[in-house]
Amino acid sequence: MRAGIALIFVGHINFILGAIVHGTVLRHVANPEKRVSPEYCTANIISVVSGLLSITTGICAILASRNIARAKLHWALLVLSLLNALLSAACFVGLVLSISLTIADGGKNLISGCNATVLPADTRSVIMSNECPFDTTRIYDTTLALWFPSMFLSAVEVALSIRFCVVAFILRGIGPCGETYLREKVYAKYNGVNKSV
C-alpha cells in the first residue's frame, strides 16, 4: 500500500513537471514550420502520459492490497504495471535523449523558433523582442532544471512498476515468482496471519 501511495505521489509530480515544461517552454518551441526536433514534444507527451498511468497503477495497487483475494485486481495490476514500466522506461530514454541533444547543441534548438536571421552563440543571451515571441534568457536553464527531476522520477516509476509486476505474478502464481511459499508469505503478510513456511 505504501508503494502504491509512493507511485501516486511520483506520478503526480512527474505529470506536473511535464505540464510545466509544456506550458513554459515547448508551447513556444513547437511551431508549424517543424524547425524543432520532435524529440522534445515526444518526450514531454510520454512524460505526461506516464505520470497519469503511474497514478492509475498506484490506485490499482492500493485496491489490490485491500482486496487481496480478488483475481481481477491482480490481473489489472499486472497489466497496468507492465504498461507503466514500459512507458516510464520510454520516458526515461526520451528524456535522456532530449537532455543530451540539448546540452550538445547548447540549447539552439530551443530558440530556433525565433525570427532572428542569426541565432546567438549563447542561448542565454537576449534576442530582440520583435524577433522572438518569448523570453530566451531562461528557456535553456528552465528546460534542463525541469527535465532532470522528471528523468529521475521516471526511473523511480520504472522501479515501482516492476515491483508491482512481480507482486502481481506472485499473487497469480505465474512463473518462478509464483511458488506456493511466496504466495503464502504474501497472503500471510496482508492478512496479518503468521504462517509457517
UniProtKB/TrEMBL annotation:
Keyword ATP-binding: no
Bilayer-crossing regions: 42-64, 76-103, 146-171
Cellular localization per UniProt: Membrane
Superkingdom classification of source: Eukaryota
InterPro entries xrefs: Beta-casein-like (IPR020977)
Topological relation to the membrane, as annotated: Multi-pass membrane protein
Keywords: Membrane, Transmembrane, Transmembrane helix
Pfam families: BCLP
Family under the similarity heading: Belongs to the TMEM54 family.
Protein name: Keratinocyte-associated protein 3
Organism: Staurois parvus
